[in-house]
């Protein structure tokens, strides 16, 4: 049902004109930038860069943890409205979730978690359309006292900007917005529709991107500036996220032998699950691009909660985690394999035998991985943009495999859209002292600007030399 | 500093007259009950037993979890005032805690957790004084859906009364109150001061009993009807309760090798702590009464909480537990031994080496165990009372070792008071479907009544045949 191959079937909501390959070729030629245009765009990124860092700092100040994304989305919304985009606040449609294959199981209501979708639809359409996607949700900080700087008070230290979400991926969101600004500031207008998808839920379900796609928002390419150290993602993992609950038999410490510790049972099961990780990792030898990836399955137990009293044998233990697999694998088949493994492991362990069968709930991403087939035109255009942004010293664009879920999988797997994940150098994402490299962010912003201009094509317009997309003269 | 031997030193607050052994002997003879007195007391327990079960049910309905003991204490207070006792609401004095050796580390404020102390001080004092102690705090229920009956809706099924706290130890509290009622209903008054200590915090720190003792509430014996299957506790464990916190290095699943899972590190440490449990268990061969106890150290990991995001390597993991040792052991020495073991274990484990040294906090009982030396007069009187309550079919009173903390340790260790722990048959304490045997509760109530009457001595008074200690005619 789910395939990682680009689909030949018509994509619902995709404008037929934009998939016309004859037009694409024509636009490609037309989209080639002049030396002057390129230099103007690069200069415009430089000129606005301090404003971009200031905006990025504002994004970081919004502690957009799960279910708390409204503040940052309001900022994004206002920023995009100010620039003249056609902006839509897109609620996640609970009725759609579970019916469309792009969605993963939702474990919360989405009243407070919504996407911002912005569109610039030029009067003259000649080029290839583009989605620039970034997620605004972040993961928790861990103990803030372990941070060198408070995680929601962005702090610039030399070439680095610190803060939770700085790298993953508010820097990327700033790059998207300021790259398009730079094109306008260079006196140019894109000649194809460009959308900005500022989405939620990437860190847990991917349902923000799924909602954008399920609502018919498609394009000829997607670019997502996740922190990739200025490399391009060639392939990523499919991922499933589970919660396992084990019920033990509680007891008083004076008679522990009459109880069965749910925690001890959980530890046994975690140990056995490592065998499944090993087994899934060993499959990499037969999987394109993954054979030299260190730990593609990467079983991560992210949380554990067990027991409720210091002096009782724990009655219950629950742990959550994720495990990965390979592009082309059907996630539903991996779910079945995982559940069967848990059942077999429990049946084969003397302690787990004394507990009811552990329950497995699916509480987050349940999605296939994707591959960006080498040789695409989108990749070629990005390579050139990367080179242009890094001239004269840059290295050619490198591609690599990322063993985690990426929203690019939604657009790639379910709509066959070439999906480019390419973003700045960042360190300590999901960790303490997350930081993004500002010189890298500047280069990536330039590369995105050059990519968008080349991919969509440009035409000269009157410019007020303001960093604004508002008031375009058609 | 702390000794399990009865102290020869004067006990602060202890009335000198009550420790006069000549008087004790005289009173002992005088305290012997006549056949008629005994039969009247037993009949009075029978007559009020349905009222007792009703009162016990009311106690169970009060969900007296930690920091929520006020409701049940108000019920106890009203019940004791109604019977004419001199009743005191005793706050736990934060200024005392930490200074008096009876206290263990407090991890909460005690604004909502207070003792009820009731005193009956007869005009004619001839016998030996007595403290009847019971704790009102209970442990959490686990998932209420796993209970056959809702845990705070007491349910009688044949000979059993179900409910959280039914056995541990609200049945015992009802036995204390109704045993004294029965003596009054039999037309008798005790001829020595008797106190009821309805205390909090037994399940975590023992600070309720410690407060009672530190405030000078002492007597010639203490009886605590914990659920002991109608046996007498010969000795119990010293117990220390710890919380261990491990900080790892959080990371994104795409680069797990760069992180150190605090959960994985915690699992390693728990595994190593089992060696400490084994080592401490092996010491039992040299310890009086403990050589045939199955698992006297009983390392129990009661709770665990780690990580904060399903798809991050956990930055932190904290687990709480308890471990036991032997009467006569200084708990502070055991604390040092435990901390040294943790440090050594962490230094010797490749994963724990990559974390900061785990921190050990002491978050509950930190107390020595006690021994009830065989041959005491208190035990002899209880044996006779037990036989009287179980006639004609009963078995002689048996003694056994209980490998857990008991509030009796406070009175025994710090005041040298003979401490009798003897109570009803209960099942599933600290577990699902806790229940107490009602026939057993009836027998124990009888035994406590006979014990109190014999120990304190009795004299005939006018009786209204009401279950009340009020309006005693002196």
TrEMBL record, chains A, B:
One of its GO terms (molecular function) is metal ion binding. SUPFAM superfamilies: Bacterial exopeptidase dimerisation domain (SSF55031), Zn-dependent exopeptidases (SSF53187). Keywords: Cobalt, Hydrolase, Metal-binding, Zinc. Residues 235-347 form the Peptidase M20 dimerisation domain. Its cofactor is Co(2+); Zn(2+). The keyword Cell membrane does not apply. Residues 1-20 are annotated as: Disordered. Belongs to the peptidase M20A family. This is ArgE/DapE family deacylase. It comes from Microvirga aerilata.
């Amino acid at each position: 049902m789910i395939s990682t191959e680009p689909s030949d079937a018509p994509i619902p909501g995709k404008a037929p004109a934009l998939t016309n390959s004859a037009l694409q070729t024509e636009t490609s030629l037309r989209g080639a930038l002049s030396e002057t245009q390129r230099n103007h765009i690069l200069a415009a990124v430089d000129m606005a860069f301090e404003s971009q860092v200031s905006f990025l700092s504002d994004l970081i100040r919004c502690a957009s943890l799960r279910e708390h994304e409204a503040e940052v989305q309001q900022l994004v919304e206002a920023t995009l409205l100010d620039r003249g985009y056609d902006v839509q606040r897109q609620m996640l449609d609970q009725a759609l979730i579970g019916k469309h294959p792009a969605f993963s199981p939702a474990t919360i209501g989405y009243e407070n978690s919504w996407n911002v979708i912005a569109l610039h639809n030029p009067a003259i359409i000649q080029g290839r359309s583009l989605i620039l996607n970034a997620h605004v949700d972040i993961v928790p900080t861990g103990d803030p006292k372990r941070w060198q700087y408070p995680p929601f008070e962005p702090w610039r230290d030399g070439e680095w900007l610190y803060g939770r979400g700085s790298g993953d991926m508010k820097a990327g969101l700033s790059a998207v917005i300021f790259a398009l600004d730079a094109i306008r500031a260079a006196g140019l207008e894109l000649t194809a529709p460009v959308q900005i998808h500022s989405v939620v839920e990437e860190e847990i379900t991917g349902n923000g991107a799924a909602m954008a796609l399920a609502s018919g928002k498609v394009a000829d390419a997607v670019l997502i500036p996740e922190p990739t150290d200025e490399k391009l993602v060639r392939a990523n993992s499919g991922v499933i996220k589970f919660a396992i609950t084990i019920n033990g038999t509680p007891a008083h410490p004076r008679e522990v032998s009459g109880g069965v510790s749910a925690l001890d049972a959980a530890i046994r099961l975690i140990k056995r699950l490592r065998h499944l990780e090993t087994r899934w990792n060993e499959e990499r030898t037969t999987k394109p691009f993954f054979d030299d990836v260190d730990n593609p399955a990467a079983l991560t137990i992210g949380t554990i909660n067990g027991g409720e009293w210091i002096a009782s044998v724990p009655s219950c233990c629950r742990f959550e985690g994720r495990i990965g697999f390979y592009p082309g694998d059907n996630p539903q088949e991996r779910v079945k394999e995982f559940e069967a493994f848990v059942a077999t492991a429990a049946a084969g362990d003397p302690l787990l035998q004394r507990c009811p069968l552990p329950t497995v709930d699916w509480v987050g991403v349940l999605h296939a991985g994707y591959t960006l087939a080498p040789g695409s035109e989108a990749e070629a255009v990005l390579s050139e943009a990367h080179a242009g942004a890094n001239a004269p010293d840059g290295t050619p664009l490198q591609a690599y495999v990322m063993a985690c879920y990426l929203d690019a999988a939604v657009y790639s797997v379910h709509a066959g859209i070439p999906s480019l994940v390419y973003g700045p150098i960042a360190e300590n994402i999901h960790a303490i002292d997350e930081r993004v490299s500002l010189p890298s962010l500047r280069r990536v912003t330039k590369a995105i600007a050059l990519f968008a201009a080349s991919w969509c094509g440009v035409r000269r317009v009157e410019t007020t030399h303001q960093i604004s997309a508002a008031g375009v003269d058609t």
